[in-house]
Amino acid sequence: MVFDAVQRTIGEIVLIGEHVVPRYQRPYAWDDENVLDLWNDLRDNPEGHFLGNMVVHPSGSDSWDLVDGQQRLTTVLIAIRAIKDAYEKIGEPGRAQGLSNYLQHVDLTGKSVFRLKYRTETGFLHLNLFSEPEAVIRQANPNSIADKAQYSAYKIFARNIAAEVSASASPDAETIDAIRDRFIRSSVVYVRVDDRQDAFRIFETLNDRGKSLNQVDLVKNQVISSIAATAAQEEEHLWGKSVSQIESSSWSKVKVEDFLGYVWNSTSHQPDDEIVAINRIRRSVDAFMRGRTSTEQGARDFIRLFSETAEIFKEFDECLASPNGKHWQDLVPADRWRADRYAAIDRSLYGCLVPGSNLPLNLLFSLLRNYIHGPKRVIRNARLVDFLKAIENLQFRWSIAQRPSTSTIRRAYRRAAYAVDSATSANDIVKALQQFKQDANSLMPTDAQFRDGLKKLTYFTQRPQDVHRVRYTLEKIDEFWGSPKISRNQIITLEHIEPQGGKSINSNQNFWVGKLGNLMLLPMEVNSSLPKDFAAKAPKLAKWVNDKDLSLQKQIAAGQWGNAASNVRMKELLDAAISVWPKEMRI
Known about the structure:
By secondary structure, this protein is α/β, with parallel strands linked by helices. The protein has 25 helices and 10 strands. It is globular, with a radius of gyration of 30 Å. It has helices spanning 10-14, 32-44, 70-89, 93-100, 124-129, 134-138, 145-167, 172-185, 196-207, 215-224, 233-247, 256-264, 281-290, 295-321, 339-353, 361-373, 381-400, 407-422, 426-443, 447-456, 467-481, 524-527, 534-542, 550-558, 563-580; strands at 3-9, 18-21, 50-60, 63-68, 104-106, 112-114, 116-118, 187-193, 492-496, 519-523. It is 55% helix and 9% strand.
């Protein structure tokens, strides 16, 4: 391995040529605290603060791909832009123009190019911070998280520069000169490596000092570096897109590193069905890649796996919002798409997602990925729905009973995911489902534990955390009782039979108002027009109450409702829930 490692100032590095942030790198992510820390560090060390390491490899004539250091370099250049604006404010256009060369330069063709480029740049950094007048920057409306972070960094630097100029007894130009020099004279160990793969190895070595690097970064570097630089553009794009999909999920704020663990534990690319710990994934992925036709093909296969799973994960938000199956169409290959099949899948998947738990993710990933993309097509639609219903039965009981994550339940999900991914026939899927049901039955919380969890569910407008669980519980019980009077095609809302308006939800005597016994389902148009008094709205409620909702039927006929009646109805609902989600599933 041949490389050049020299301590250089940021000023020297920027003027070397163009630095490029590859697609696989994460977007700009420094928060306000990081930016302020940099400002304070440079202010306290005016002769030259050491910023750490930068690792690059060539990507063209006078162009260098940044493997390490992109966040720091971006931040320093944003600061230089703020300093340039400060010069312009005090009437120093010459000094301002001198700093322009650190942001853009004219290449040999006479074209103006940026010193720092993001291959995934949305336009904000270049079209605003690095090129527009200050007045335009101040009117900018950044959209993405990265854009907002860049804009916030600019405002922090501008504010601190103005404050330092105001507090200084020196001439304004001299004060700003000192600020400029602090940034330009800050230094790094600048490591240039001719070979792309060696650049990744050096990055890992420099950053792995007692505490392991984030496994996502390690695996990303390992995989991307196994693909020829000239051919990796698509894979780099897929990796960056996948990370964005994971981080933007509103259903579950699962970290990308944890997501990697769920993905890898949804496969059968290991010798056995034991859970692969996060700190072992890199070695496991490496063994997988080396076992393929070529390491490069293995890297491409892994990125495709990661990307397909991230796309499936993204659809979970859509399923919770509207479980009609339509949102899958753009993801599913045309020859595998049928609206009725995915509508049935969505209805069952919804029940798996409502508990809000990450525990079933590896099994859900294995099932859906193989159903949508599996070349052998061993999973039939009906069998997939059966599997999803079994997952719901276990996970709904487990989550409602407020049971913690244990190695036993994680092991059950992992074993099933491995069996599904390694299946070569429809019969293998049947056996995997039978084994999962057997494992699930041994794990099921007791009826008493499940009842206690259901009693704790609450829904107030001011406290909507349990809204999906409450609504789903009532929907499933309504279906279990039979002959539901509300069509699932209608927009359904939750109605507090005893109104919550005017009652403090922090008072113990009012807490029953948010419990299951006092909640029912109504079409939105009916709910919005109901009177508050129970006797007055009882005739309208009667039209929508299930015939087997006996206690509510009785109170509607009497025109009376209260805490005691709500408790009686609560018991009836809990009795029904025990049958909807049985402790023992048939195998």
